[in-house]
Amino acid sequence: MAKAAYTIALANLKGGCGKTTISTNLSAALAARGSVGLVDADPQGALRHWVDWQHTDPNDARLPKLYAEHADPLENLKSAQPQHDFVVADCPPSLDIAVTQRMLEFCDFVLVPVLPSPLDLWASAQTIEVINQARAKNPKLRAALVLNQTEPKSAMTRAMTQAIAKLNTPVLATSVRRRAAYRNAVVEGVSVFQLGNRGREAANEINQILIEVVPK
Ligand SMILES: Nc1ncnc2c1ncn2[C@@H]1O[C@H](COP(=O)(O)OP(=O)(O)O)[C@@H](O)[C@H]1O
Ligand SMILES: [Mg+2]
């Protein structure tokens, strides 16, 4: 029977905010709960490199399976959804604004990673606009910001609080700290879950994000 995969998109029209980092690690966390399809909608194809680096059997059902056979990422999303319990989609930067919007019309949750600075928060307004457009066609779509690359002592400044209020979008209680584990995992072709002690704190925060994002 076809499954109706719970589909999580990582979207921000700005590059470098953590879409791919969070996609890889969330998909690894989800793989402990069910089968996972990964859709790389970014033409730079970072997920493809990550999957290639794993040197594992691509048919191993315990690992996220990459869907990349079609040039159109929406086709890849639609191929993945009937096959899996969960699908994670890494959305492209601003060049492909229409691609992001169409993808979001078929997702359950969109997470918007943002760096903890007012500039980055202001720059996310366009992404929120795209999400709102997608919602007009897909009312079930839920959205949240997730702060990425936070530092232990970095407080929310007033400018940040104001910028967040203007976006009118919830922020996950869990934020993703800046950690070497995230950078190391991706170049080793693994997730933070495979780094043992080196990745333990990162793995805990990714699991916390899942609790906030995936319905029980
Ligand atoms: N929480 C984090 N801690 C440390 N480095 C991070 C973290 N999140 C992202 N990075 C690094 O920041 C850069 C941009 O992240 P990436 O996930 O590629 O962003 P995007 O996919 O949005 O362009 C990469 O070099 C990545 O390794
Ligand atoms: Mg990326």
Structural class: alpha/beta
Provide the helix percentage.
40-55%
**CATH level 1 class label:** Alpha Beta
Give me the CATH architecture, please: 3-Layer(aba) Sandwich
Unreliable residue stretches: none
H/E order of the elements? EHEHEHEHEHHEHEHH
Shape: globular
How many helices? The count is 9
- Measured between the Cα atoms of the first and last residue, the distance is 22 Å
Strand order of the largest sheet: 3-2-4-1-5-6-7
Beta-strand percent range: 15-25%
Q: Determine the CATH superfamily.
A: P-loop containing nucleotide triphosphate hydrolases
> Which whole number gives the mean pLDDT?
91
What is the CA-based Rg, rounded?
16 Å
What composes the largest sheet? 7 strands, parallel
Word description of this protein:
By secondary structure, the chain is of the alpha/beta class. It has one domain (6-213): P-loop containing nucleotide triphosphate hydrolases (Rossmann fold), CATH 3.40.50. It has 9 helices and 7 strands; from the N terminus they run βαβαβαβαβααβαβαα. The chain has helices at residues 19-30, 46-53, 73-80, 97-104, 118-123, 125-137, 158-167, 180-187, 200-213; strands at 6-10, 36-40, 65-67, 86-90, 109-114, 142-150, 176-177. The chain has a 7-stranded parallel β-sheet. Strand 6, helix 7 (158-167) and strand 7 form a beta-alpha-beta unit. It is globular, with a radius of gyration of 16 Å. The model has no long low-confidence stretch (mean pLDDT 91). The structure holds adenosine-5'-diphosphate and magnesium ion.
